[in-house]
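pasting for the record
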Amino acid sequence: MVVEQNEFMRPQRIILTTHLFLPEFFGGTETLVRDVAIALKEKGHEVLVVTGYPMERQPGLADHFDEYRIDDLRVVRFNYQRAPLGGPRNPMRDDYANPVFEQGFCTLLDEFKPGIVHFHHFGRLSIRAIDACDARGIPTLFTATDFWSICPTQALLLSNGAICEGPDRNSANCFKHIAGISQPAWVAGVIKSVPIVALGGAMKLLEAHAKDLSGRVGVVQALAKRGEIIAQRFHSLRTIFVPTRHAQTALEKSGLGHGNFRILPFGIKNHGYIKRTRARTGSDLVLGFIGQFLPHKGLHILVEAIRLLPADLPIQVKIYGKFADNETVYSKDLIRNVQEDKRLEFCGIFENAKIPVILDGLDALVIPSLWHENMPLVSLSAQAAGCPLIASDIGGLSDIVAHERNGLLFKPGSAGQLRDRILRLLTDADLLKRLSAAAITPLNIDQYVDALDVEYRQAIGEAQ
């Protein structure tokens, strides 16, 4: 159908979804959705954010959905409790096909009547929300902000810290991994000893079983069915946005997408970045880490690398972020190692608007991730400020950092290689200036949303 330009430009009702949202959660996906929603509103669109929220108790039927406002955005929240394995509910199935969410989402579609739905995450919501949109003739798009659609733990990272390449034969390797992190050691040991071929055959039978089974067998069945159920829905998506070529390759390798990809690097909100070229001046080299203090983010690798350097080198490391609420062996060890070295400093958290000031105080930002990062927004912010990156040569980070041009790459998990990269910045008088001068200029959020807006209007026009 041909749509007149003036009709194309009319404001639309748009739903954005994410698994978690502000104010309690403020990761990259949450920040991106918030910034996109605000920019769309400024264009005149009516925007509704739909998200999830993990509760300590099981909500009553009347309490599953509530509503609030933040940054003048309307947010509808699905409240849920994570179900234990073997309980009356199926936690694996609930992660990608939650029937309670599906029912509420259908009601929401009928009440709000969106012109388009842009999914940013399905975790603990439901991939079948795509079906609800299809039934109503509502175009759907998806932005892959992590690897949940491939990996049940969304990190593509094994228990031993090794990178996982995704599900193999009927997700048998996923079953072994999940059993290893959720079951008693003796149970995990028994499952680990089962040959992958035998385990894959059993899971294939469970996948083919028409009836949804219950209990622990039902959980395994839901895992076996997960990949195909998600892949089927991905066929209906008009566009799958990915920020990097790596993300597209990973999804295609797992049988997702089938040609409807568009590479669109994330945009960042303009907080007033000043693109300053760094240079060695004889003062301390100031490195920074900004992120979550979780094992897969690799802060311990940076700490170890600093401890491998001679104590008299002129260096400071400013660490921004916070620990998870529950104390762990990892957090205890990290705190002890940082406190034992005066070159390392915990600096707490900061409001997003202050990030230009934080970055202006750094000579380089270190991203020592152990997992397949997609496109961390903080890496884009650093580049907008002219701050070079020292990053793991992994996932989307390798698409952002051109080694020896706008940053330095090192082998993931190698504190020795990271130490060597830091030494180069200390000893090569011109390197920091060269890397800083070559920093890329990322899309700002308005440019990013302009690109989305074109896609939205084309999709709506084709659907009419």
